[in-house]
Structure formats: structure tokens, C-alpha cells
Design the sequence.
């Protein structure tokens, strides 16, 4: 998977977009029972990160904090938008020994991308 933005790019070897066909549509029923759908539909994609470094995790966090528009290419499936939620954590969370934790530079988790309409 490749994440690109105006001033750089990031390659995540072990990450992918989950539920590529999922879409959230805001709708409500009128008093007569008819369904009204509000467009454009909000598309949120969850990206599963199975392995990345601390530096990669901090870069993704920074892209989310600044609201930078990114483009994600997951083996031909391309989506453009902004990262709105990041939940990446250290893989060895239960290990208390700092020297062991520092040697294992592996982060896992998810982040969400809100696609542009």
C-alpha cells in the first residue's frame, strides 16, 4: 500500500484497506414512511496496519493532525481523502522491560480515512 500527499509518500508493506465496498449513507423517514437519502454519501475506509515502524506511525499521526489530503493506493484500489482517526500501538504492550521494548520497533492497529466526495 502506498500513501502519497503533496510533499511525500509512505510505503506500508503490510497494510490494506478493509471493507472496500462499505459506505455510510445518512437517511431518515418522513411522516408518511418514505425514505429520504442525503447525498453525498460519506465514505470512510478503515486501513488495517499489520506492521509499521514508530516513524511510520508518527508520520500517519502527523498527517491526521494537520488534515493533509492523502491518496492511498492499495494494489489498484485508489482513494483520496483525509485521515480522521489513528489507533496505532506498540506491538509488545505487555512487556515492561524498556530495553526489550526499544529493540522491537513494530506498531500495529488501524486508521480511518474519510474519502472526498
Sequence:
Amino acid at each position: 500500500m502506498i500513501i502519497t500527499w503533496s510533499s511525500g509518500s509512505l510505503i506500508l508493506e503490510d497494510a490494506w484497506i478493509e471493507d472496500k465496498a462499505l459506505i455510510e449513507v445518512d437517511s431518515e423517514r418522513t411522516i408518511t414512511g418514505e425514505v429520504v437519502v442525503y447525498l453525498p454519501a460519506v465514505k470512510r475506509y478503515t486501513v488495517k496496519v499489520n506492521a509499521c515502524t514508530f516513524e511510520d506511525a508518527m508520520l500517519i499521526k502527523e498527517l491526521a493532525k494537520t488534515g493533509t489530503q492523502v491518496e492511498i493506493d492499495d494494489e489498484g484500489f485508489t482513494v483520496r481523502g483525509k485521515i480522521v482517526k489513528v489507533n496505532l500501538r506498540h506491538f509488545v504492550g505487555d512487556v515492561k522491560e524498556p530495553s526489550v521494548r526499544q529493540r522491537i520497533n513494530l506498531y500495529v492497529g488501524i486508521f480511518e480515512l474519510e474519502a472526498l466526495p
Observations:
- The mean pLDDT is 88.
- The first strand starts at residue 2 and ends at 5.
- Helices lie at 54-66, 98-103.
